[in-house]
Design goal:
- This protein is α+β, with helices and mostly antiparallel strands and about 140 residues long.
- The chain has a six-stranded mixed β-sheet with strand order 1-2-3-4-5-6.
- The two termini are about 20 Å apart.
Length: about 140
């Protein structure tokens, strides 16, 4: 699947793709969040992942590493997240649960912090992710 077709699929799931490229076997996607708050929205990550999972399940896309950049506006980065293609393969093969998949993706989230704060990016782990029980059904990556 080429970059334009993949971007169209993500858009059909409500992801406002600003750019998408396939570089060295990696999907690099930048999208405009509909929720420009302090953190990357889990539900929005879920929509993007659902598009990719559906394509893999249908045999229309061979999973590749995904590196996502979430922006509030052009040039205003909210954060980043990624997906290992093995996670999608394992989910499709039913060797990984949806909760396990969601947890793995959410553990990759890194939030951009104000440059004036000087303490670098915040990760979900820095904010207590992974210290409690599995995410509630409405808190993880929706499927």
């Amino acid at each position: 699947m080429d970059a334009d077709a993949l971007a169209d699929e993500l858009r059909s799931f409500g992801v406002s793709v600003e750019s998408l490229s396939l570089t060295a076997g990696t999907v690099d996607v930048t999208y405009l969040t509909a929720f420009p708050g302090e953190t990357v929205t889990k539900r929005e990550i879920g929509r993007a992942c659902n598009a990719l999972i559906d394509l893999a399940e249908q045999g229309r896309w061979n999973p590749q590493p995904v590196e996502a950049t979430v922006i509030r506006a052009p040039g205003d980065v909210l954060g980043w997240w990624s997906v290992d293609p093995a996670w999608i393969d394992d989910l499709v093969a039913e060797e990984l649960t949806e909760t396990e998949f969601s947890t793995r993706v959410l553990e990759t989230v890194v939030h951009d912090v104000d440059a004036d704060a000087g303490d670098g990016p915040d990760t979900e782990a820095d904010q207590g992710a992974g210290t409690g029980p599995d995410p509630e059904p409405d808190q993880g990556v929706d499927r």
